[in-house]
Specification:
The chain is an alpha+beta fold and about 425 residues long. The chain has a single domain, classed as Cytochrome P450 (Cytochrome p450, Orthogonal Bundle), CATH 1.10.630. The chain is about 40% helix and about 10% strand. The chain has a 5-stranded mixed beta sheet, with helices on both faces. A 3-stranded antiparallel beta sheet has the order 4-10-9. Strand 1 and strand 2 form a beta hairpin. Helix 4 packs across helix 9 and helix 5 runs antiparallel to helix 6. The radius of gyration is 22 Å and the shape is globular.
Length: about 425
């Protein structure tokens, strides 16, 4: 028996730094494999996973951010457990938000989200990003070094979303998030319940939207408060707050991790850094390859509602499917030399870093802009971007701390040194 066959993916921290040998081991058995731990079906195949993402008739997103931990609060019964899911949804952690709702509730709330992320607002928000990036770099440019997440990435991602939603600059501190226990955190145990790091965000927007509905102003927040359902009806404040909170949850954490991944990649590869400095038109292609290789979401989960096939395997109502996005994005049937970073890869943009189907990330254009602008401004304003070896050790013995999660991947922090451009 292989060492990998004995691993409990949901509790083993040895996979945090590099899970891909394990995922390759699973893939060698087939694109869909039943794991002994928690009776989960792991999907590493690109085509097989994309099909599940698109099939919301047979697969529910209710457990998307948790997977098998904690276990379901009911015993699945019958050929269709849709009604059971809805009857017990309030008992499933994180099951009442945009990322985990199923149709028809999801359709209504998704339309609210799209009413907030309009092309006009995205264009205005991108102009804000350029200035924000410079303002934050100004704070550490003279030091020649930076603690990237603390001094740039987290605040940048959060403030971008705050601007998109029209939060006044003086209120930015009120929508800061404070993470304690995250969904999917290794070491919490099967009974662990994630804390709500967005409680202050929800409270702030509930008050702001209610106030703007009573006394509209000429500002983006009033536009947000005036968003309507697709049928023209006024949504409850709680619905708008749920969508706003989802934006903060999906954007601030994952984008911050991706900024670290981008700058680490450039700091570790002087030739790639030089190539992008010489030709900025390559930056968008680099972003797509980075999303494919280092996307912050490692896995999502689906609960089988009705009997179905995943690849060639039959699954039954109540079974759990783990869509291993970071493995699907390295499926050699889809991507030649999948573990290599190639900025000239023709099909890089077919990656599934933002999911597929009704739960695909609506903020994908926002995330791409944040990554591109951050990369360009660091390249514009620094030279010889490099890893701080006092913090992370020499090139042949790097020391990095990774996010302790079976759902997400990335560094806890990244320390860089640089010269001024």
């Amino acid at each position: 028996m292989s060492y990998f066959d004995q691993i409990d993916y949901f509790h083993d921290s040895s996979l945090l730094a590099d899970p891909h040998p394990y995922f390759d081991h699973l893939r060698a058995k087939g694109p869909v494999v039943q794991l002994s731990a928690h009776n989960v079906y792991a999907v590493t195949g690109y085509a097989e996973g994309a099909a599940v993402f698109r099939d919301d008739e047979r697969f529910s997103a209710v457990i998307s951010p948790n997977g098998p931990l904690p276990p379901l609060p009911f015993t699945p019964e019958g050929a269709d457990i849709t009604d059971q899911i809805e009857a017990h949804r309030h008992l499933i952690p994180g099951a009442n938000n945009l990322a985990t709702l199923d149709r028809p509730q999801h359709t209504r709330l998704r339309s609210l989200l799209m009413g907030m992320i309009t092309p006009k607002r995205l264009q205005e928000n991108e102009a804000f990003m350029w200035q924000l990036a410079d303002n934050q770099i100004d704070d550490f440019i003279e030091q020649g070094r930076v603690s990237l997440l603390a001094d740039y990435g987290k605040a940048f991602a959060t403030n971008v979303i705050a601007d998109l939603l029209g939060v006044p600059r003086d209120d930015y501190d009120k929508v800061r998030t404070n993470h304690a226990t995250r969904p999917g955190q290794i070491g919490v145990g099967s009974a662990g319940r994630p804390s709500n790091p967005y409680e202050n965000v929800s409270g702030y927007f509930a008050e702001a939207i209610d106030e703007r509905r009573r006394q509209p102003r000429l500002d983006v927040m009033s536009d947000l408060a005036a968003v309507r359902n697709s049928d023209g009806s006024i949504p409850p404040v709680d619905d708008v707050v749920m969508v706003v909170t989802q934006l903060f949850g999906a954007g601030s954490d994952t984008t911050g991790l991706m900024i670290l991944a981008a700058l680490r990649t450039l700091a570790e590869d002087a030739e790639l850094q030089r190539e992008l400095r010489d030709d900025r038109t390559l930056v968008p292609d680099f972003v797509e390859e980075l999303l494919r290789l280092e996307g912050a979401t490692r896995a999502e989960f689906r609960l089988v509602k009705k009997a179905a096939k995943v690849g060639e395997l039959d699954v039954s109502p109540g079974d759990i499917v783990m869509l291993v996005i970071s493995a699907m994005n390295r499926d050699p049937r889809q991507f030649v030399d999948p573990h290599e970073l190639r900025i000239d890869r023709k099909n890089a943009r077919t990656h599934i870093a933002f999911g597929r189907g009704i739960h695909s990330c609506a903020g994908a254009p926002l995330a791409r802009s944040e990554l591109r602008i951050s990369i360009e401004r660091f390249l514009d304003r620094t030279a010889n971007l490099r890893i701080d070896e006092e913090k992370h050790g020499p090139a042949d013995a790097r020391r990095y701390e990774h996010v302790p999660s079976y759902l997400m991947q990335g560094l806890q922090e990244l320390h860089l040194q640089f010269d001024r451009a």
